């Protein structure tokens, strides 16, 4: 079955889906996006994703292109047309098509809305992360508003590529003071020798991950102690566990950082418990 994409009110074969060459998302990265997991026919944490989408649009002084109910209907239709039971959808909204100019186009310029979806095999993801991943640290070089989920991801792309070339699977941004920020497409957590879970506060300097927020709910249910505070690379390297959270990976254990093992070099019990308990706690919206 060929994939189907949604582009500005039309459902098109994925291979034919396109936007204008002067779309501001293409010219200026002037747009925002969300990625949302679908598991067992349920959209995971849809409300939180759409709330963050609204915030991102507002921060870029863009209005929502349609009501939340209408957008949810379109998302469901894309998933149904692609027969996605386990997988994800990608939603992107840009400021639309206009003559190339740094100034905003007129307010009546229609926004560009695209949605794609694809199926994934949960068993493959489970095997992929069963033994944990290797990461590298990279210097922070992104713009200051990483709290907005924009499509301007070139520093993240370069960090991911640097990790791949180093034989790792991901990269973690670190600021000039040695403070850990976040992964190239994830939030970072450490487990101290005392069993406390530490993650950086999401007020500034990182994206407020939706999976991160739900993991806080999961840890509360599991009775785990969480402290939101800054931590440095040295503390991360000395941790009992380190893991990443994201919509695509949920909870991914890190077993090596910059070529050095984390603890005994194997996934820990906290990340495993969080991953096992995540779906029970997350919001589930039927397709």
Structure explained in plain terms:
By secondary structure, the chain is of the alpha+beta class. It is 30% helix and 29% strand. It has eight helices and 16 strands. It has helices spanning 24-28, 46-59, 68-81, 122-130, 154-165, 210-222, 233-237, 269-281; strands spanning 4-7, 10-13, 31-39, 42-44, 87-94, 112-119, 133-139, 170-174, 180-183, 187-191, 197-199, 226-228, 241-246, 250-257, 260-261, 284-286. The strands form two sheets. Strands 7, 8, 9, 10, 11, 12, 13, 14 and 15 form a nine-stranded mixed β-sheet that branches. Strands 2-1-6-5-3-4-16 form a seven-stranded antiparallel β-sheet. Strand 11 (197-199), helix 6 (210-222) and strand 12 form a beta-alpha-beta unit. The radius of gyration is 19 Å and the shape is globular.
How confident overall, as mean pLDDT?
A: 97
* General shape: globular
**Category from helices, strands and their pairing:** alpha+beta
Q: Helicity range of the residues? A: 25-40%
Q: What is Rg?
A: 19 Å
Q: Which residues sit in consecutive blocks of at least 5 with pLDDT less than 50? A: none
What is the string of SSEs from the N terminus onward?
Answer: EEHEEHHEEHEHEEEEHEHEEEHE
Number of distinct beta strands: 16
Number of helices: 8
Largest β-sheet summary: 9 strands, mixed
From the structure above, extract its key features.
287 residues; alpha+beta; nine-stranded mixed β-sheet; seven-stranded antiparallel β-sheet; 8 helices; 29% strand
């Amino acid at each position: 079955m060929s994939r189907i994409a949604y582009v500005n009110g039309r459902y098109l074969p994925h291979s034919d889906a396109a936007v204008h060459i002067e779309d501001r998302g293409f010219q200026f990265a002037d747009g925002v996006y969300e990625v949302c997991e679908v598991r067992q026919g349920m959209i995971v944490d849809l409300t939180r994703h759409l709330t963050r989408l609204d915030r991102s649009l507002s921060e870029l002084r863009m209005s929502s292109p349609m009501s939340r109910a209408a957008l949810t209907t379109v998302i469901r239709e894309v998933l149904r047309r692609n027969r996605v039971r386990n997988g994800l959808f990608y939603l992107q909204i840009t400021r639309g098509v206009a003559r190339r100019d740094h100034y905003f186009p007129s307010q009546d310029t229609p926004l560009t809305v695209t949605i794609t979806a694809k199926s994934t095999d949960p068993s493959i993801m489970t095997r992929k992360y069963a033994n944990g991943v290797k990461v590298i640290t990279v210097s922070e070089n992104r713009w200051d508003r990483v709290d907005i989920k924009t499509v301007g991801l070139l520093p993240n792309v370069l960090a991911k590529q640097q990790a791949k070339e180093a034989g790792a699977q991901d990269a973690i941004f670190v600021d000039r003071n040695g403070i850990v920020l976040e992964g190239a497409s994830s939030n970072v957590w450490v487990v101290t020798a005392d069993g406390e879970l530490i993650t950086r506060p999401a007020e500034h300097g990182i994206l407020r991950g939706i999976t991160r927020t739900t993991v806080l709910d999961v840890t509360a249910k599991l009775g785990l102690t969480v402290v939101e505070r800054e931590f440095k690379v040295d503390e991360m390297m000395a941790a009992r566990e380190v893991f990443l959270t994201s919509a695509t990976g949920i909870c991914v254990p890190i077993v090596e950082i910059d070529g050095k093992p984390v603890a005994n070099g194997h996934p820990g019990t906290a990340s495993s418990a969080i991953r096992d308990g995540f779906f029970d706690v997350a919001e589930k919206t039927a397709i």
